[in-house]
Every structure is written in structure tokens, then in C-alpha cells.
Amino acid sequence: MLLRRVVGNSMQPSLHSGDYIICKKARHLKIGDIVVAEVNKREVIKRITNIEKEYITLQGDNAPYSTDSRVYGPVAQNSIKAIYLAKLRIPRFVKNRLSH
Amino acid sequence: MIIRKMIKPVYAHCDIPCGIYETDSMRHAAETCLRMIEKIEALGELDSQDKWNNFVRMVDIKEKHAQRVKDEAYILWSDYFKPEHLTRFPQLHDVFWRLAKQASIVKQTVDKAACEQLLHNVTEADTLFTDSKK
């Protein structure tokens, strides 16, 4: 299980900047999954739009504002770290404290 | 704070410097603020729910567009202008700082003069931007 904080708007409206999310280890991937992938030594979150052999095409839901496989090309399957499971519902007063 | 540090960020960014810079969006946003102030003034007394509704909507639009002026100015200031521009235009920081401040004043007030001043500040920034390309 991974706990991550979303930074940026490329996955809107599915995920918003500041959302806390739970992910599970990536095993069986399918088109449509939202995944955490390691690209250029940093973790990004995108949706799988195509799977071809060992290569995965990623795209942000908010396509005009997303840097994804359209820029860096398909990523290797082993760069997928986790699959998004759910958003953590954190009360606003806790969230506010976390953001300071 | 500690918990926040423990939770790693995962990026959903657009982080390509696209190199497309312009001042039209900033001017359009400033002109929208001016138009909203004119429309608010034209409303007269708020004696009906419809007028209140329109008033709130206009203030909201003014707020958003004044913020847009600031956002557009910050993009130019931080991304477009480089240190070499500063040697050519030593007034650069002052121009953008005053522009951002004026946009905040437009948010805080319903003042046509403040908005006209904002348009003047936008023109100043626009002139700098145009001159920097020569």
C-alpha cells in the first residue's frame, strides 16, 4: 500500500491537487487504470490509455494540461509502481493543518 | 507537518516550458474587470433579488479576472523575463510588482479609477514585453 499526495491538475476531474490517495502495488494492469509511474526519477500519476507488450501509454485526464506519454512516449511496464485505489477523505481541518 | 513530509507527492503536472508568452490574456482580463465595474455601477440600488444575483455574479467575475491578471503577470515575470532583461530594463521588477498590487486593489474595491490604473499598469508591462523582443 502506498499513500501519496497529488500535486498538479493534470488528473482533473478525477483527482485534484491536494488529494490524498491510497494505491496498491501494481500487478495486473489494464487500460483505464490510474497508476503511479516513475518517469524521469519522479513519481507521476496518470491513466493507462494503451498497453502494448511491455510498454504502457499514459495520459492525464485533463489532457490539455498534462505532460504524459504524448511527450515522453510509452513507459516500460516496470516503471509502474502502483495502481490508484481510492481517495482518502480527510476532514478539512486536518487537511488545513497538513498543508501548513 | 511531519505527516505531510511522510506522504510523498505524486506529480500530475504540466511542466514543459512551452515558450508561448503573450500579454493579450492579461489585457483581456483587466478589461473584463473594468466592464464589470461599469455594469455594477449601472445596477443602481440593489432592490431586488435579481439585482443582488447579478451583483454577486459580477463581483465574482471581477475577482476571477483580477486574479487572472496577476497569474498572467507572474508567468511573464517569473518565466519569460531573464536576468539579461533586467539589465536592459531595470524598472522591470517595479513594473510587475505595481501591476500585481493594482490587481489586488481591483479585487478589493469597486473603483473604476483603480481599474483604469490597472489597465495603465498592464500597458506598461506590455510595452516592456514588446520592447524585450526587439
Largest sheet geometry of chain A: 7 strands, antiparallel
Largest interface: A-B, 27 and 13 residues
Report on the biggest sheet of chain B. Answer: none
Low-confidence stretches of chain B: none
From the 3D structure, determine the CATH topology of chain B.
Four Helix Bundle (Hemerythrin (Met), subunit A)
The number of distinct structural domains of chain B comes to 1
Task: For the record, give the distance between the C-alpha atoms at the N and C termini of chain A, rounded to a whole number.
Answer: 25 Å
In one word, what is the shape of chain A? globular
Specify the number of helices of chain B: 6
Structure report:
The complex is a heterodimer of chains A (100) and B (134). Chain A is 11% helix and 45% strand. With 100 residues, chain A is mainly beta. Chain B is flat, with a radius of gyration of 18 Å. Chain B has one domain (24-132): Nickel-containing superoxide dismutase (Four Helix Bundle (Hemerythrin (Met), subunit A), Up-down Bundle). Chain B contains six helices and one strand; from the N terminus they run αβααααα. Chain B has helices at residues 2-6, 24-43, 49-80, 83-88, 92-108, 112-132, and one strand at 8-11. The mean pLDDT of chain B is 89. By secondary structure, chain B is mainly alpha-helical. The interface between A and B is medium-sized, with 27 and 13 residues. Strand 1 (2-7) of chain A pairs parallel with strand 1 of chain B, so a sheet runs across the interface.
